[in-house]
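Lecture 7 notes: from sequence to structure.
We start with the chain below.
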Amino acid sequence: GKGKGKGKGGNSNSTGNKGAAAEEPLEVVSTQELIQGIIRELQEKKGSLDPFTPVPIGDIAPALQEKTGQTWAKHFKRQHGPISSFLKDNAKHFQVLDDLVMLAPEEEAEDSAAAAAAAASASVGGKGPHWFDFNDSSVTPIEEATIATQFSGKESAYMLFYARESALSACTPVALPPALEQLIDAANAALTGERAEYARRVATFDVVLHFAPHYELRQLHVVPKIGSDPTVRSCTKSLLTSSTLAELRDLVAAEVARVGADIKPVCLSFVKVLSENAYHVGDVVPIRDESKSSTSMKDAQISHGTHLLVWNGATLDGGDGNTNDGNTAVIVETGTAAEPVTLTCVQSAEPQTFELVLRRREPVSVLRARIAAVNGCDPMLILLRKETKGGTNAVLEAADKDTVGDVALQTGRRLYVEVCASAADKRKQEQVSLASVTLQNHFGPSDAHGAGTTPAAATGATGAGLARIECFPVQTECTVAEIKSMVRDLLGLEDVLLSEMRLRAVKTLASTGEDGTSSVSWLLADETRTALSYQIETGLTLCLERAPTVSTAAGAAGASAAVGADTITLEFVIDATSLAALPVERQEQLAA
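Predicted structure tokens for the same chain:
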């Protein structure tokens, strides 16, 4: 059989076999009143008489079961849903805050607050007005003498004063005294001035203006004329970030008049700084376009440190583009494609270096032709290699139509040049990997037996007196013995045995201060190993040293074993000031 019973505000269901006694339904006045009573009991357990003290929603169901012996899930959920939904649906009686709930303020809340204030007033003794601390729903009386200390300092972020609305309606606005109004106006005016000054400081930036008549074109670079006055040929001006191209145009016109430059018409172009006192003219700044007069500095891509050329848009001589002698002035090519690239070419056979300047748009075939002209050979026999990040010099693989910019040749990069004997030799050399190192002669002259010497600087001579050779090419497939033989022939040490020589590789790691560097070095002890296996790469320094000598057979065997072992030497240089600044323990470690 099945029985069902209902009570006001709730229901109770039970099922069982025929003849079983049906479970008695839970009789309550209302579910809302039941939950209100449970919340009040939970507040009392927390020691609070405040009806607005929040309690955890999760505590209500256990309290309900403890009070009635019935669970919410069994007797109330079918009608009301989860307890949290019931509380939210009855927002008139309950106020839910995340996982907390409290009784909602009702009409009697004001009377409750008044009663609490009256009780608090009584607790401080006597009748009449008292001071109260309203901390959210908690109201406590405080002595007037404690106000200055309780509501001051770091413990009080802010303080609010309350007054009854009925009292405020009877108040008459009081005008501020004239002296106070003047004081407030003066303070506001001072603050406005400070804000304006701050805005000027943070909202300005500097640009550098270069005046074309004081510059000339030399080796494709725009450079200052010899003897030109630095204070006249350029100047630094400040602009507001809110400035427009129209305001920049007016500034440029004023500066042209100030320096007395003969520039007609007045145009403006971006300038790229290639090196100290060497520039390239870029795109035009449209200050003459009236439709762009309101363009901001940001939209015009003008920012702090931008260099700008003031010129006529064609030549550096100003005026109408004609020189004083009647000849037409040199037209300046602008834009990224016309940017000059200075290449340092290294002849691997000598070795010797020379510089070539080409534009980014010029084809590699022009580069080969100019190098061939220097060597007096067929351009097709020129093999070019460029520096790579991997530490070797890779063959420059480029079709003749490819440009200098296409193959990523940049100013400051080295280009290694080999003049091959034939086309077959060129194809063979293309398979060889090269590393460019700095060779230092720590061995000394061929007739200097005994301890090796360390020359202080390159002498510029050939043979045994040469102390330093830049850009010395090393084939990474060569063995250490083959490299030693090449070095011996280059330095004119033919009478020195290879066994008397040894090579040490040195790699500079980083700078450790104004006077210090850190480096790592290792011996190329095994003559049968290749340079590649010893990690010889472009940028290293290869030092030729005198191998240690021994006088006895036993000593020779020991020395051979020592030299033959792979040895790593760490060298660390630090200046005295930096050393003194280290902790004592660290100083002792370094000393050890």
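Points to note: The mean pLDDT is 76. The longest helix spans residues 178-202.
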